[in-house]
Amino acid sequence: MERLPGFRDFYPEPLPSRDAGWSFEARQYVFNKWRETARRYGFREYDGPPLESLELFTTKSGDEIVGQLYNFTDKGDRAVALRPEMTPTLVRMIAAHERNYKKPIKWFAIPQLFRYERQQKGRLREHFQFNADLIGEADPAADAELIALLIDTLRAFGLTEQDFVIRLSSRNAWHEFYEGRRQKAEARSDADHEYEFFQTIDKLERTPPEESEKKLATLGSSLADVNQFIESGKPTTELQSILDNLTARGLREYVKVDYHVIRGLAYYTGVVFEAFDKKAEFRAIAGGGRYDNLVKLISGGKVDLPALGFGMGDVVLLELLKARSLLPKFAAVVDVFVLIEDESLRDQSLKLIHDLRAAGNVVEYSLTPAKADKQFKRAQELRAAFTVKFESDLKARVKNLKTREENIVAIGEAVTLLKREL
Amino acid sequence: MERLPGFRDFYPEPLPSRDAGWSFEARQYVFNKWRETARRYGFREYDGPPLESLELFTTKSGDEIVGQLYNFTDKGDRAVALRPEMTPTLVRMIAAHERNYKKPIKWFAIPQLFRYERQQKGRLREHFQFNADLIGEADPAADAELIALLIDTLRAFGLTEQDFVIRLSSRNAWHEFYEGRRQKAEARSDADHEYEFFQTIDKLERTPPEESEKKLATLGSSLADVNQFIESGKPTTELQSILDNLTARGLREYVKVDYHVIRGLAYYTGVVFEAFDKKAEFRAIAGGGRYDNLVKLISGGKVDLPALGFGMGDVVLLELLKARSLLPKFAAVVDVFVLIEDESLRDQSLKLIHDLRAAGNVVEYSLTPAKADKQFKRAQELRAAFTVKFESDLKARVKNLKTREENIVAIGEAVTLLKREL
Questions:
Q1: Which among A60, B122, B352, B416 is least buried, having the fewest CB atoms inside 10 angstroms?
Q2: Among partner residues B50, B97, B137, which is closest to A367 by beta-carbon distance?
């Protein structure tokens, strides 16, 4: 029986065949870095259900999203879906209990997310995403804090300003641009078409110029006008204050204003940003921005809080880390391998194994009788730091497999010795 | 919008209202203990997809299980289901790549599992389960190693032999019992009805005696006969060797032979066991046993390996730990709160905040200008260990909020000082 296409198995270590999936140890390495960095920034971890009512997602993203969801009707006749993103769950949780929290609320999560995408070679239908959100603060200082977290998270993996850049932009800047042109232009270019304009900007880099030109003309602008605005790259007051804040932290070199970025989703309201590898070999590493209206929308008007956040998936990040040789070699850790060469000493050995484990060591041994050389070979395969074996009823031989140093000590001391040495 | 019934939100800390869900910090505490103990025993972590083909689960458990599953047809017309248990995924993964692994294979996982149960007050439809499995070793020494892990896992939470007991049993013992009676009995009591007999034993404690009596008569036995066997509690050779092994480790007092336990599922083949709280206030804390035929079944005969494992859910465990006051008070950790009393020093403060975080500290501050007393109050609410503020361009005042000790140091030294002190 096979696993479903687009899903991954996480074997403890990488397997010889690439097809065999991903390794749990690499995943855990990434999760731990995400956690450590978020915590240093004062973000606290939460989680919600991987299954939610379908309505939670359509309220936020419209009915078009259903085509990309793992959605179904459960045995209680509820329309439900596996979560394709975390923000709706976060906002639902915040809206239900926001009065328990001082603002700003700084939370993060590492959910597994699911999208049913038409099968493409190697395209995944699930991934893990680091989500950090800051709720209840409208000041650009909050945007700067979140972008600093994004930068430091990538730096925690050993990535430098040679490797990645944050492209910083703002829907407010484009709003002003659009409003300026609109007032001079024809009927169709009204406020209702602003999102249509945003989408045209979003697709600019992957649309033939003639097509963009035609579209922009109907929206009161022109390709030359738009390109000039992008090339100027002049920060708005809001963006400048974020840049100044990041400069103070020593992080200015990681960010550039780039008005190409506007983010596709309808709900972004202000500053938006994306992280890219500088060689542009991969898709975006992370993306986010302000969504000041979403809490109000999802809470049905009950709660109104400004908010912003970003998401960083594990797949592009892992590919980038591999390409830059930044994934450490993980060593399976076995601290002590207990050799049982004399079966009459098995019971004493089991006691010793138990004591060594209680002292915090990872301990392995042969469950069944085996030849001495076979046991020692196994200890080496497992890259054990030490072997221990009984020399007599009272003495144990402790061997450091790296230095080859050996000591014969009283049994009681072996545990103390290894506790100290490891 | 509400979360689905039977699902939990994990807020960072417990909320005043019980309804608000569970806390992420308690969940993480439990996961960390599970991980630490499993690692000391040399078990390595893996994971698989939460969504699998429906066939994987029906092959193992029969079509009856479908009524309890979150199953549906995906957009590619595949019959799929959210995993109700981890073993089928584990066995699928092992069967696909077993040649890469020396035996025995010792793996663990902490999957979230899903079951659509008829809605009962407070009954959950998802939970997390610690799964530890040992594959490729038929000797009872493997059973002892796994049971020792189960015991030490519960001990890691502070539970003692006053709190829990492992009820140890064996289908082999019941097999011998059944075979002995069968040979003397009527037609219906044949080998095909052995599983029917096992199920009768499994339900013995919750079935009226007359009913059990009637059923057992058709299977060549009697209630008196069965009860006498249970009361004798005489360990088989296999169980005795497990008890001796656990005795050597100093864990004998945690186990008792109890032939009431036989486990409901069809696929168990030998030793079976369950962990219970001694006051019998809760459902089983954990359960497991040997499933020597399952790898062969799920791999379609390709791979044949003896195996055994156990599962321990988070829900009963957390209830038990709460009832025994063994859940620690979790303190939100903020190492340093940086006070910004003079806005002209905000940029320098941002630099200091960044350096303190780079030195490994959890650092908080007010994102926007705020009165000095309000900032200090916030630092206290967050139970910060230290506050730091600029005294001048060059000096910082470091205050230990516990001891109230204050030091004025050069800015450069503040980071070194706090790195050392924390």
A1: B122
A2: B137
